[in-house]
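Lab notebook, bench 4. Still working through the backlog of constructs that have no structural model yet. Next entry is a single chain of 207 residues. Request: give me the structure tokens for it.
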Amino acid sequence: MKHLMMITTKKILFDTPTGISLMIFILLAFKMQLVAQTKMEHEFRIKPEEVPAKAILFIEQCRFPKKIKWYAEESQNGKSFEAKTKFRNTTYSCEFDSTGNIEDIEWIIDFPSLDKNLQFNIDSSLNQLYLKYRIIKIQVQWSGKPESLIKLIHNIQSDDPYTTRYEMVIRNQKENSSDYSEILFDDQGKIIDVYRIEQPSTDNLEF
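Model written out:
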């Protein structure tokens, strides 16, 4: 009976004008929190000898057959490193922190190739934030132990846990202008973070 009374109380709270206004305020505050962040970054090519040894070692263990392009990235969060290459007709990006520890691996995927339920959830999430948008790029993002990530690259099942997320760049089309946003989703299509991209890098948007 106590549990039933608690549910009834909550229903009455949000059925009143004050309760509805409160719920709208909470939703708007959450939306503003998501879109308020700005991502400023500068990416540029570097030589392998400028890369931390730990990052070089990880890439060697991946045994990518094609040329590796190295980049440094400077942002409000500090400096990081990135290795880009193609493997089995897929573009891979391995991201490292300033000391060379692997942070995540990303690879480009076409939106229609995602699971239908995931597509629906991502669309629903985006429609809550934007009236009109265009998907520029979407990437699968893996994070976990280095040995697990190497196995995933080579289509070998990993016994260790790892995290799958999805990173998307969209163009938010407004009436007289447009801007770019980077959005991170969990494996169910729920939004984790939203960043407005300040002067987006051409390299990041092309694919």
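Notes after review: The helical segments are 2-15, 17-35, 53-62, 116-127, 146-153, 202-205. The chain is about 30% helix and 40% strand. Flag for follow-up if needed.
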